[in-house]
Each structure stands twice: as structure tokens, then as C-alpha cells.
Write a structure and sequence with these properties.
By secondary structure, the chain is an alpha+beta fold. The protein has a domain of 106 residues: Beta Barrel (Lipocalin). α3 packs parallel to α9. The N and C termini lie far apart (53 Å).
């Protein structure tokens, strides 16, 4: 691995800041800029952030600045042109693309998803298949499980977006339909497929031609292959190991086939244009109205209770301010900061973290994005505190976050919550480890390969896409504990302050006294894997007779529907 001397890195931060790109716009006076710069410098050091870009929009004015390193080894600083992976902020772009296409088709968010996609697609039950609208998918209110393990482990290159979208019927339900928000990247993947049906081209081409170009986002692009993050004008992804910055593991940055949920690369200049486009209700800088403003407004106002992800509660009297999350809109989270409506979203692609905040009524927007140190609370707190400081200045408040507390946040107001996972359970000797080994299939996920651990008689080794680790035996026959061990970026988020990694229950079921299936309890819904008895996946690991029967029934329904209407759109 490539190691960076931490002391040397910190010593050159000041030099990098001196070489910053120019500031444009009249948002901050000289003293305010110096205060913000000092706050960011302090944050980079204490939170161990390699590089960071900030963009502020206020009306027609823009302030954009880069800090720290885009490429430490080459000595390249972050500037306004440096590209970052913005992760789930991409979801709002997919919403905008659909708004443009719906405006042309004279449709709205109540359009039925399967009326657009056709009978080859469907959900786990007929009711969801029949009733789900674009709004349901955009607001994460289908109730379908998010299958986070699938996003983490990734998919083989051979699995296409169209293929995986046609397997959505295997996505299990976690809660009742429209009963609140269950965050789901797969629904945005499916919305990308909807865009392709409406637009007659790939999501990637449509995003470039219908969104980037008209808005003037000339540098933004879609991440196609992981190696693109390690070349050119892209900020390199870093993680922190033993006090040193280490380049990220390249292969785990493959987002395909979920590009529509989080694959955009952008920079400060382009994101300023995008924020202004949203604040101007779909109007570009040259005055072109790309979409029906009503569609955009509904994305900011129609919200579903947001329970899919937990954020630190910033409320009075614990904190000196209140930052309340009201619910999930359509591609945006809607909240309230100190009495002002706040529309925002975060984005994470392993080492990359992005926060985009907008205050539509004030025509204010702020973007912060960074390139390390890999799914770390320090990185999230760094961006959050910097954005709090900036928005207070823009609102005319005395910032409650400053250089005296930016490194201790959430202290002194709130103690950090410590989580301990414990030592695990007593392991038992596996009398016949071979009976568990083999390849296990799942209709929606990359399969799992289990092998004997030649160095232990109490555990097994597993590989699931990017993930590698162990299955530890327990006192209970056929029940194991799964632990992620590689790559570092993917197991560190599941590690407590004592460096103990969270473990997940795995159980096996037998048929005729032979191991036949495996259940993984990664989330609320158990995930079932069927043993195939070999160590290599079949090409068609995502198919089943049930799905083929479902397709036939859907085709019959589609034929009947065609007899009743002349135009599904």
C-alpha cells in the first residue's frame, strides 16, 4: 500500500492553501473569508481530511474554494476544477432528468412505474407492482428492503442494469407499502431504467445531453470504471491507517449497475450552476426553462417520514440551534434550520463524502465535498461543522461553530455515543467443515463462496464480491457469526472504539441432513442463499422459475391493459 507521512502532509497544508484558486462573487468580506479559511485549515488537521472543496451560492453570486490535496504524492491541491464523487447527491440529478422527460411527455409524479416499464418488470407483490408511482420510488416509500449488503459487496461486470432491474421482484419487503421511508438505492437504479424508457437512450447519455450540457456543467461526468478516480483532475480517494493516508482500494469503487443512485463526478464550479438551477426552479443561467417548476417544487415539499437513516439530532436545548429533519422529498431531504426551510442531501462513495444544503426561500446553497478518510464519522462531522459555520454567516447569525469547538463537536454540547460489540461467542470445533463449503446463490445479490480455513478448525472463510472475511462457529450447530475483514474501507465502519468489528448472524438449514440454504441477518429482513455445491457462480445466478412465471402473468396483464388504452404514457 502507498503510505503518506502524516507530519509532512500537515506541514504542507498551509502552502497548498496559499496556492488556492481565485474567489469570485461578493458573498464574504475579507475578514469573513480569512475566518472561514482558518476554520477549514483547523478542521483538515484535527479531523484528518486530505482534501476538501466548498461552494457557496447566494442569489447570483458564487464563492468557491479548494483546500488540501487532490493528489498527495503528486503535490496537486484541490481547486475549483477538481472532481469529486458526489454519491447520493446524484439522486437529485436523476429526479431532475425525470422532471425534464415528464414535462415533455405531459406526465407527473403520479405516473405508474410499471405502465412505463412494461410487464417484464415487477415488485415482490401484485399490489406494489400495480400501484407504485414515480413518487413512491423517489421518496423511498415502497417499503422494500434496501439490501445495503448488495451495494457494499458490488456486482460482477456481467450484470447489467436492465438485468438487475428485471429481478426487482426478488427484493423483499421490509415494511408496508407507503408506511414511511426505507432508503433504497435500487429504486433509483430502477428510476434510471424509467428514464431510459422515456428518453430512448441510456441514463448516462441522457444525463449528459439533457442535464449537464443545458445547465452548463461542462466538467461533470458519470463514473464508468474505478480507475477513473485515480487519474486526471479527480481527487484521489484516501483512507487513514495507523496515522497515515493510504490510497483507496481501486476495485471497490465500481458503482455499476446502480449508477443512477450515485455515480456522478462533479466540481465546485459545476455544482454552483446546479444549485442555482434548483434555486431558480429549473431555469438555467441563460434563462432556459428545462422543466415544469411544479415538478421541482413538489420534490421539495411532498415528504415522507424519514426513518431510513439516523442522523445526530441537533436540537435545543442540548445545542444552541435546531436542525430538524422533517422527511424525505423526491431526491432531497427536507428540514428546517433555525426557522428556515432547508433542502439537503448527503452522498458517500466510500472515501468521498458530500453535503449539499439549499435554502430555497433565501436562494442560498452550500456544497462541501471531501476525499477521505473513508466512511468515517470524522469526515461527516468535518463537513457538517464547516457548513454550519458558513450558513450562520449567510443568515447573519454569530456562528455557534468556530475554531474553538470545530474539532471537539459534538462536545461540549453532547458526548459521543460509544458502541461496543463485545467479544463474540465461544467457538466450537467444526467436525465436518467441508459440508458448509461451496457457492451460495441469491436472486438479487452477488453470491457467497465459503471455504475451509486451513489455519482454524472453528471457522470458515467467505468471499462475497468485494467483501472477504470469516464465519465463526458458535455453540449452536449451523449458526455462525460473519465478520468483514477486507478491504479495510468496508469493514472499518463496522468497528467500535476498541477495534472490535460488528458481526452478523448467519444460519444454515438442512435438507435430508445436508446443508441446503444459508440465511444472512444483515438487516431487518433475513437474506436467503441457496447452496449450489460448487465454488464458481453460474452465469445466470439471478434467475428462477418463479420469476419466469411472474413474467408470463405480467405479459397477460399487459395485453389486457393494451386493449383498454391506446397510449400507456
Amino acid at each position: 500500500m502507498f503510505h503518506i507521512n502524516m507530519r509532512l502532509f500537515l506541514d504542507v497544508i498551509l502552502i497548498i492553501v496559499i496556492l488556492r484558486p481565485s474567489v469570485f462573487g461578493n458573498i464574504f468580506n475579507e475578514n469573513e473569508e480569512l475566518d472561514i479559511e482558518k476554520l477549514v485549515q483547523t478542521t483538515l488537521k484535527c479531523r484528518q481530511i486530505p482534501g476538501l472543496a466548498l461552494t457557496v451560492v447566494k442569489g447570483d453570486d458564487v464563492w468557491s474554494r479548494g483546500f488540501g490535496s487532490a493528489d498527495i504524492s503528486a503535490g496537486i491541491p484541490v481547486n475549483n476544477s477538481t472532481l469529486f464523487a458526489i454519491g447520493s447527491v446524484t439522486k437529485s440529478f436523476t429526479m431532475v432528468l425525470l422532471s425534464i422527460l415528464l414535462t415533455e411527455k405531459k406526465l407527473d409524479w403520479t405516473a405508474k412505474v410499471m405502465d412505463i416499464l412494461g410487464p417484464e418488470y415487477g415488485f415482490v407483490d401484485d399490489y406494489r407492482t400495480r400501484e407504485s408511482t414515480l413518487k413512491d420510488l423517489l421518496s423511498h416509500r415502497t417499503g422494500l428492503d434496501g439490501l445495503e449488503i448488495g451495494v457494499i459487496s458490488g456486482y460482477p461486470k456481467s450484470v447489467t442494469r436492465e438485468e438487475l432491474c428485471k429481478k426487482i421482484s426478488f427484493l423483499p419487503a421490509q415494511r408496508a407499502f407507503r408506511d414511511g421511508t426505507t432508503y433504497n438505492n435500487y429504486m433509483y437504479m430502477l428510476l434510471g431504467q424509467v428514464a431510459e424508457k422515456l428518453g430512448g437512450d441510456t441514463w448516462e447519455n441522457l444525463m449528459t445531453s439533457r442535464v449537464f450540457r443545458p445547465i452548463g456543467m461542462t466538467s461533470s461526468r458519470i463514473l464508468q470504471e474505478p480507475f477513473e478516480l485515480f487519474k486526471g483532475d479527480v481527487a484521489r480517494p484516501y483512507m487513514m491507517i495507523n496515522g497515515q493516508f493510504v490510497l483507496g482500494t481501486q476495485e471497490i469503487y465500481k458503482i455499476s449497475p446502480l449508477e443512477a443512485s450515485g455515480a456522478i463526478l462533479s466540481n465546485g464550479v459545476d455544482m454552483a450552476k446546479y444549485i442555482r438551477f434548483n434555486l431558480n426552479m429549473g431555469k438555467t443561467d441563460n434563462g432556459t426553462q428545462l422543466l415544469d417548476p411544479k415538478l421541482l417544487m413538489e420534490s421539495y415539499t411532498d415528504i415522507s417520514e424519514y426513518t431510513g437513516q439516523q442522523y445526530r439530532a441537533i436540537t435545543r436545548p442540548t445545542f444552541p440551534v435546531s436542525d430538524i429533519h422533517l422527511g424525505y422529498g423526491q431526491g432531497w431531504i427536507v428540514g428546517n434550520y433555525n426557522g428556515y426551510k432547508k433542502v439537503w442531501h448527503s452522498g458517500t462513495v466510500i472515501s468521498y463524502k458530500t453535503l449539499a444544503w439549499m435554502f430555497p426561500e433565501l436562494r442560498i446553497g452550500i456544497l462541501g465535498t471531501s476525499n477521505g478518510p473513508a466512511i468515517d464519522v470524522q469526515q461527516a462531522d468535518a463537513l457538517t461543522t464547516i457548513l454550519y459555520h458558513i450558513i450562520d454567516r449567510l443568515l447573519g447569525f454569530t456562528p455557534w461553530i468556530n475554531v474553538t469547538n470545530v474539532c471537539t463537536f459534538p462536545k461540549p454540547w453532547q458526548e459521543e455515543i460509544s458502541m461496543g460489540y463485545g467479544p463474540g461467542e465461544t467457538e466450537r470445533v467444526l467436525q465436518n467443515a467441508q459440508e458448509y463449503t461451496g457457492y451460495y446463490d441469491n436472486n438479487m445479490l452477488t453470491g457467497i463462496k465459503l471455504e475451509k480455513d486451513n489455519e482454524s478448525n472453528t471457522r470458515l472463510k467467505f468471499t462475497m464480491g468485494h467483501l472477504k472475511g470469516n464465519l465463526y462457529s458458535t455453540p449452536h450447530q449451523d449458526r455462525f457469526l460473519m465478520e468483514f475483514l477486507s478491504p479495510a474501507e468496508l469493514y472499518r465502519p463496522y468497528m467500535d472504539q476498541n477495534n472490535v468489528t460488528m458481526k452478523f448472524n448467519v444460519s444454515f438449514e438442512r435438507k435430508n441432513n445436508e446443508v441446503a440454504t444459508m440465511q444472512m441477518y444483515f438487516n431487518k429482513v433475513p437474506l436467503n442463499f441457496i447452496k449450489r455445491g460448487h465454488l464458481q457462480p453460474k452465469i445466470d445466478t439471478l434467475s428462477s422459475g418463479k420469476k419466469r412465471l411472474f413474467d408470463v402473468l405480467q405479459w397477460l396483464k399487459y395485453i389486457v391493459l393494451l386493449t383498454l388504452t391506446t397510449d400507456l404514457l
